[in-house]
Amino acid sequence: MLAVINAHILTITQGEIENGTILIENGKIVQVGSNITVAEDIDILDVEGAYVMPGLVDAHTAVGLKQEGMRWEGDDRNENTRGPIMPHLSALDGFCPEDEVIYDAMENGITTVVSAPGTANVIGGQAAIFKMQERATADDLYQGVVGMQAALGEDPKGAWRNQKKLPSTRMGAAFVLREALCKAKEYREKVARGDANPDRMPERDLQSEALAKVVTGEMPLYVHAHRADDMATALRIAKEFGLRLVVTSATEAHKLAGAIKAADVPVVLGPISNSRMSVETAARTIRTPALLHAAGVKFALTTNHPETPLLTLTMQAGLAVRGGLCPEAALKAITLYPAEIIGMADKIGSIEVGKDADLAIWDGHPLKVRSSVLATFVKGELVFEFGCNCDWEDIEGCDCH
Amino acid sequence: MLAIKNGKLVTIANGVIENGTLLVDGNKIVAIGPEVVIPAEAQVIDASGKFVTPGIIDAHAHVSIWEEGLGWEGIDVNETTNPITAAVRAIDAINPDELGLHDAYQNGVTCIWCAPGSANVIGGEGVTMRTYGETVDEMIMLSPSGIKAATGENPKGAYGSRNQMPKTRMGVAALLRETLVKAQNYQRRIEKAADNPEKMPARDLGLENMVKVLKRELPLRAHCHRADDAMTIVRVAQEFNIKVTIEHATEGYKVALELAKHGVPIVVGPTLSCRSKIEVRDSSLATPAMCAEAGVKVALMTDHPVIPVWYLPICAGVAVRHGLDEAVAMRAITLTPAEICGVADRVGSLEVGKEADIVIWDGHPFEYTTHVDYTIINGSIVYQRQ
C-alpha cells in the first residue's frame, strides 16, 4: 500500500483538493481526500504540494506503429498495397514496445494511448488501447481493441489515385466503404442462418468477419475526416448502417457541430496545433475546442502522434484554452473525455476510488509551459521519476552527475 | 506618436523595466524608461499588467514560400532539379497574403529569415523579412540574407534515390567544395578582367552569390542535424575562411565546445517535432541549454511549416523547462536571431533609435495560454486583439 500525501489533486470529476492524500493498493485507488488517516506501516510519498492528476490519455496515435527516428524501416501504419479495405489488420500485430516515444509518454505523464492503423486505406484495420510502461512485449501493454479505423478525404484519395485505382474521389471512398459494410452485413446474416451447421455456413471471410462487428455495433467505427463534408459523409453512412461512430482528426468539426451533437457522435480532435499542411486542413484553428464545447459536443484532444509529438498533449490543451476553452474542460479533454470515448472511464480518466492508480505528478500546473512531470504511475507502478534528465556527460562543467 | 505606458518592458538589451513607458515616433522608438513624459498628442496604450517585448524573430522559417492549406501548388521551397542552385531566391516565391504570415504577426512574430529548403546542397538565397505588408517589397528587411546550404539525409535522399550525386556525405562535401572553388575561379577571372568588358567572364548569377560568401558578405547557413555534418561545415568554413551558421543543430550538444571554439552560431529547432528520420534520432529538448552553457550563440527556429511559426515563444518556454536561462531564451527569439539575420541594428530589442517592432502580451510570452493584445510593426499597430 502506498500513500501519496500533501498533493494538490486535480481529480477532474470532483474538483481540486489541496493537501490531499491518495491511497493506492494493488494498483487501484482505494481512498482520496483531505482528511485521510495514513497508517504508519505503509509507504509514503510526500509530494510537497505538487499537482497530481490522472494519467493523460491520447485517443488517437500511431505509437508503436511508426517508430521514432526511423522512416520506412519502422513505419508499419499503412498497408495500402492490395486494396483500400483491410479490416482484418490489427494494431497489436504492428506495435513495437521499444518505440522511444513510450519513454516520452512515461516522462510526460501520458499513461494510456490508442494506437491506430494509418489513414491511407478507407478501412485501415483495428485500433487498440495500450498502457505506457516498459515491457518486453506488446501483449503486456495491450488493453484490447477499441474500434475499426476508417478514413475519408485526401489521405485515401491521395494514396490510391496515384496508383490509378479506386478510390480516386470522395465518391469512390464512400462507395468502397458502403460496399464493404453491405458485404459484411450479408456475411453476418449468412452466418446467422447457417447456425453453426457446417453444411449451411458460408466460407470463412476474415475481412467480413472483422467488419461484421462494426455492422452489429459491437465495435465502433473511428473515421478520420478533416473536412466538414467528409464528416457529414461519415454521419450519413453511420445512420444508413446503424453504426457507432467516432470522428477523429475533425479539423472542421466546428462547422458541423450541430449535426455532430444531434447524432451524439464523439470527436477525437487534433492536433489543433499543427500547420495547415494540406488543402483539407486549411481551416485549422485553435478555436475549434471552444466551439465544440459551446455546442455540447463530447470531444477529446489528440496529438495524432507522430503528426505532432505525443508529449505535446498538454500543449494541445493549453492552446485550446488560448482559443477560448475553459481550463477545466481542457484538462478533461486529455483525461476523462478520451477515457469515456474509448470505453475505459470505469478504470481511467479521473482520480476516483476504484479506478486504476494512473497518476501524473507535476511541479507546476499542467497547463503551464514550464511545468515538468516529477513522477508517473501506471496501475500503481512508478514508471518515471524525475532526476537529472540531461545528457551533460558530453559537456564539461555539468555537475549533475 | 504612440505611447505604451505602465508595461513590463522586456528590453532584451537593458534588462526588464517594471511599469515602464515607451514612446514611438514615426517608425522609431524615441524614448524608453520608468519615467518618460508622454506628450499630450500621443495615442496611449495602457499596458498595465502586460508584457511588452520586441517583435519575435524566427531565425529560420519557410512561411509564405511553403504555403499552408495547399498541396504542391503552394510549395516553392526546393528547386530539386539540380543539387546546386545558388542563384534561386526565396524572395521570388513570397506570397505576401499567405495564411502563415497572418498567424505570425497576429501571434507576435514580426520578422523571419525566409529561406529555401534543404533538398539541395546549395539551396539559394534567403531573405530577412517582416511578416506584415501589402507587397513583398514593403516587407523586405535584408535581401539577400544568407545562402542556404544542406548536408546529411535530405540532399542524399533527394538525389541518391535518382542515382545522382550526392548519394553520400562525401558527395555532399565534395559538391560544396567544388562550388566554392568555382566561385574562387570566377572571382579571379573578374579581378583579372579589371573592368575591361572584353575580358569579363559571362555573368553567372549563382557564382556571383557564392563570391559574396567567399567575401564574408553573406553567411552560409547550413542545415545540419548530426554532429558529424556540423563538423564538416566547420571544416569547410575554415578551409575557405567563410562565415557559417549551423541550422537545426539537432546533435549540437555533442560538439558544443567545438562550435563555441570556432564561434559558430546555431539556430536550433524545430523542437517539438518528432524524431522523424534517423539523423534526428538523438534530438533533445535540452540542446539549446547545453549549447548555450558551452558558450555557443543560440537562436531558435520553427522551420515553419514543419512546426507552425507561432509556436516560437512556446519553443523558448520548453527550452527553459529543459534548462535554458530565461533571459537567454528570450534573446534567442529576438536579438540573437536579429544578429544572425543581419538586422540587429534595426530590430530585436527595445532601444531608442530602433525600429518599432513591438508586441504587447496579456501574460508571459512563453505560456501556452497567453494572447497577443497588440502587434506593432515599424511603428504601426497592425494587429489588435478583439
Q: Kindly report the average pLDDT value of chain A.
A: 94
SSE order of chain B, as H and E? Answer: EEEEEEHEEEHEEHHHEHEHEHEHHHEEE
Oligomer: heterodimer
Number of helices of chain A: 12
Provide the CATH superfamily of the largest domain in chain A.
Metal-dependent hydrolases
Description:
The complex is a heterodimer of chains A (401) and B (386). Chain A is α/β, with parallel strands linked by helices. Chain A folds into 2 domains: 1-55 and 349-401, Roll (Urease, subunit C, domain 1); 57-345, TIM Barrel, CATH 3.20.20. Helices cover 27% and strands 24% of the residues of chain A. Chain A has helices at residues 91-94, 101-107, 138-141, 154-161, 170-194, 206-215, 228-241, 257-262, 288-294, 313-322, 327-332, 336-341, and strands at residues 2-10, 16-25, 28-33, 43-46, 51-54, 56-61, 110-115, 123-131, 142-151, 221-225, 245-249, 267-269, 299-301, 359-362, 373-378, 381-385. In chain A, a hairpin with a 7-residue loop joins strand 7 and strand 8. In chain A, helix 5 packs parallel to helix 7. Residues 388-401 of chain A have low confidence and may be disordered. In chain B, helix 4 packs across helix 5 (205-214) and helix 4 runs parallel beside helix 6 (227-240). Chain B has 11 helices and 18 strands. Chain B is globular and about 65 Å long. Chain B has 2 domains: 1-54 and 348-386, Urease, subunit C, domain 1 (Roll); 56-347, Alpha-Beta Barrel (TIM Barrel). Chain B has helices at 99-106, 136-139, 153-160, 169-193, 205-214, 227-240, 256-261, 287-293, 312-321, 326-331, 335-340; strands at residues 2-10, 16-25, 28-33, 43-46, 51-54, 56-61, 109-114, 122-125, 127-130, 140-142, 147-150, 220-224, 244-248, 266-268, 298-300, 358-361, 372-377, 380-384. With 386 residues, chain B is an alpha/beta fold. In chain B, helix 1 links the parallel strand 6 and strand 7. In chain B, strands 1, 2, 3, 4, 5, 16, 17 and 18 form an 8-stranded mixed sheet that branches. The chains are: A alpha/beta (401), B alpha/beta (386). The interface between A and B is large, with 41 and 44 residues.
